[in-house]
Each structure stands twice: as C-alpha cells, then as structure tokens.
Amino acid sequence: MKPVITIGYCPKCGWLLRSAWMAQELLTTFTDDIHGVLLHPSEISGRFWVNIDDQTIFDRKEAGRFPDIKELKQLVRDIVNPEKGLGHSDRK
C-alpha cells in the first residue's frame, strides 16, 4: 500500500491555502509514489505538521518555521521514493 501524507494545519490561523498549495505540489510531484494527501484541520491553535502515515516529518512548533516546498519535497522523497530525482529541487 502506498503511503498517505497528512498535512495538519490551524484553520484559525488561515493556513488552509498554504496547506492546499503544498498538497497540490506533493500530489503533482509524487503522483505514482503516494496514495494521497489528507488535509487535517487542527483543533490546537497555531499547529502545522506533515506526516507520512504515522511518522511526523515536519512540525512547525519544533522547527519554529514553515518548510519551504523544496525542503518538504526532499523530506517526502527520502521516505516514499529515495531514488527519485527532483530536478531543480535537488540543486543546492
């Protein structure tokens, strides 16, 4: 079974659009590698996190910031398909 990515976000903070954009980017990049992306409104104010199945790969509270899309794609790739090239997202 292919993994499911969950993006948890604070709806009170207005982070739905950011989360939806990130979901779109991940769905476009990892079409053949994932089952889907779930957007999960958090009941806890100020939360933003990304899980692959039950593994947290990014937590805004721990990092003190949001991930940029390049970083997020690399984190996802490293778990779902480590051999996948990300084109310009792999360049330093």
Protein described:
There is one protein chain. The protein is α+β, with helices and mostly antiparallel strands. The protein has one domain: Glutaredoxin (3-Layer(aba) Sandwich). It contains three helices and four strands; from the N terminus they run βαβββαα. It has helices at 16-29, 60-63, 69-80, and strands spanning 4-9, 36-41, 48-52, 55-59. The protein has a four-stranded mixed β-sheet. Strand 3 (48-52) and strand 4 form a beta hairpin. Helix 1 packs across helix 3. The radius of gyration is 13 Å and the shape is globular. The model has no long low-confidence stretch (mean pLDDT 95).
Tell me the span between the first and last alpha carbons: 32 Å
Give me the oligomer status: single chain
The strand count comes to 4
- Rounded to the nearest angstrom, the radius of gyration is 13 Å
Instruction: Characterize the largest beta sheet: strand count, sense, and whether it forms a barrel.
Output: 4 strands, mixed
CATH class: Alpha Beta
Give the DSSP E fraction (strand runs of 2 or more residues).
Answer: 15-25%
CATH topology: Glutaredoxin
Strand order, largest beta sheet: 2-1-3-4
Secondary-structure element sequence? EHEEEHH
Task: Determine the fraction of residues in helical runs and give it as a percent range.
Answer: 25-40%
Pfam families: Rdx
Protein name: SelT/SelW/SelH family protein
Keywords: Redox-active center
